[in-house]
Amino acid sequence: EQGLQLLELGGSVEEEYIRIARCFEATRQRCCRLEQDGRRAREQLARVEAERAALEVKLKHARNQVEVEMKKRHRVEAELEKQERKLQLVLELLMREPWGTDALSREQCSVLSALAGWRLGAALAPIRRSSAVDESCQSLLSHSDISYDRTEDDV
């Protein structure tokens, strides 16, 4: 009887071992899949970090370029304003001096008068912007909205 019980027990133990071995194999396969997923995720993270670093470099260059262009623009606008003032003074001098109007024909005087009026109106107007730059979308892309804060560059 004990022998039969051992045989019956041995058969069920053997089935239990097989079931446990199948569970271990399923767990091992799941671990392998998770390891592969982890490897792929690390590779993707490395690619994304490299792309982010490249974009940060481009952003830094773009910020520097915008800063340089804004400085150039301010210098050119100041020079334009200076030249307009000189022109206005010359026009006023020509219009005021009797010898200036005598030397000029009536047509030249009318052109100078119109030009003087136009320039004076332009000088009294707010700072004029270059016509090559479309600034009609200032609410969307105003240069005042651009952050030139370099503290983020250190991160």
UniProtKB/TrEMBL annotation:
GO MF entries: GTPase activator activity
GO (cellular component) term, any one: midbody
Coiled coil: 38-97
One Gene Ontology term from the biological process aspect of the record: Rho protein signal transduction
Keyword Coiled coil: yes
Keywords on record: Coiled coil
Protein name in the entry: RGAP1 protein
Organism: Rhabdornis inornatus
Gene: Racgap1_1
